[in-house]
């Protein structure tokens, strides 16, 4: 079957836009083809710095006829609705529509639209110009004389030519004829800007790729990446060094060249006194170069690798020399920044008040920077105060959390006070991505405890779902305090995430809290943790909090709002927990059966059990135990019995009222009925329920499941031999109370009603 080859040749396309642009081109063109009944076998898009290309294989010569039914308004609808329907469906009058009847919705109009199959060449000639004119570039430009009037084509960079051919492999393909802004489609492309800039005539995809290869252009970005990576490793190995691999940089560099040539440069060894991360950031950000390390020591070497876009006649000597000059200048700046940050600030006298407030030592350079951050009043958020105020909150909270996570409170507080101190440093000002890391370096230089140094760097972690979770206790305390403060603050000013919008990355912060708790087996009430952070934003309300351990409290309006505020946060955390557990393979229904529903709040009273059902670690353990139990035959059978009991109760409670069968079953009535199976269930419930409840109280969830498993034979026998809805009203009510006891027994472990099956 015929293939389509499309190339849009332009000036330089930014590397960061290429992947998405190629994917957008593929999707826009193929979606439009399918809408016209033109189904294809396969499609792949490509991008280089100067071109977007698309190959679609297995297209028919003509599309299939399309038959579509378009639903219209009901019969008797207002004229405006009828006219809109006729226009959208392309009908001249309602006589061309069909009336269909629906027992619930009544009669309505249906338009049956039939379109003959379109010639593929004609369809492509319509689709491609429309795609080009409406292409979703993040940034685009106009050019030429027509741009002054705003009527010219918008493209990422000036578009020079369009190649578009269609035809079968055994035939000479034809050029699909169309024109966009004066650019007429053809069958020519251009090779490498320097090595083969002339026009190249191509027929179809195979010879297109081969022609570009001869013209020093590697079309596939993944192949360019593979070439760069292989050559870089080889060059490094030849010098006894090791490449510091960087997937993000590799992707970017592959988008900067059409024919990659990897070269090695060097810089003076004296620059190795700069922290290696700063060297890497400098060379990466400014020159898009890779750094190398000595495999024997693990330290950076004074060499780097650059990727050129041409094969120079001098072997690349001039290119290397030019890059070395720039790298040397950038590293000189970095060395100056590093030296400046290690020295004293010139305005120490102005920092005394801030130092006293925060408990800082102005004899230490990093303490000086923290005092300066406070004195300058650098704003964290307009409604949440300054960075200095935030550090005070985080330090107090970290000290409070320290015993819970097994950290030294003094060290946790000290680490929190210095956690943001590198923000005003010269190095972080130049390279913001080094925040935390440079703080650690400077803390080490001034002799801070190792755990304090580590916490300064690690308190930002985890930054994403695949990022490492800190495990050192001091790091965990500060990381939790930092994230809880962020969440409490933005919750306070009602800047919660909505839909896909999360400008302050609160979902990431919540996931970080959860991962820190779970990865480190931290036993903490999420209520208490959040309240501890929230209280520092409403210090004037602290006296109104209930005494520790008090469970049921009549609340004032202000205090009610405070706890509703906390409960809303809990539900946000639970939803993040659900997402994490589902990603890790847990069944969503088991999560819903264990994670508590929103708390009940009334106008004048809020009932809360402190520490009840908000221990995230226990929730995950209970879900895991429940999942294992339901994989057993006992678990499956008990779930089936529960469902049967619950369905019967639901139906009967509709007749008798909710709560009509509360309380224990009457053992005397059971004895009077004389059914062994009924008595067996009553005995089993009497023995099992306290065992399950005790096991849950002892956090022995496997034991709780084992206790529930003991119910299986009695439940099976009961439903096999006993008629629940007995003609005798007393026996019926008693047996329904027995089923209600069964429902209550399972709820000691989880809400079985939320479990599928």
List the helices and strands and how they pair.
Blueprint: E1 3-10, H1 15-35, E2 42-48, E3 51-57, E4 66-74, H2 79-89, E5 98-102, E6 106-115, H3 120-133, E7 159-167, E8 174-175, E9 179-180, E10 183-184, E11 188-190, E12 199-201, H4 205-214, H5 221-238, E13 242-243, H6 247-254, E14 261-266, H7 276-287, E15 290-293, E16 300-308, H8 317-342, H9 352-358, H10 365-375, E17 379-381, E18 385-386, H11 387-405, H12 409-418, H13 426-430, H14 437-445, H15 450-458, H16 473-492, H17 506-519, H18 526-535, E19 552-554, H19 557-583, H20 588-594, E20 605-607, H21 616-630, H22 633-656, H23 667-673, H24 676-697, H25 701-709, H26 712-721, H27 729-747
Antiparallel strand pairs: 1-3, 1-7, 2-3, 4-6, 5-6, 7-8, 9-10, 11-12, 13-15, 14-16, 15-16, 17-18, 19-20
Mind explaining what this structure looks like?
This protein is α+β, with helices and mostly antiparallel strands. Among the domains are: 3-62 and 119-214, no CATH class; 68-114, no CATH class; 221-342, no CATH class; 632-754, Isoleucyl-tRNA Synthetase, Domain 1 (Orthogonal Bundle). Helix content is 49%, strand content 13%. The chain contains 27 helices and 20 strands. The strands form 7 sheets. Strands 2-3-1-7-8 form a 5-stranded antiparallel β-sheet, with helices on one face. Strand 7 (159-167) and strand 8 form a beta hairpin. Helix 15 packs parallel to helix 16 (473-492). The radius of gyration is 35 Å and the shape is flat. Residues 540-564 and 599-612 have low confidence and may be disordered.
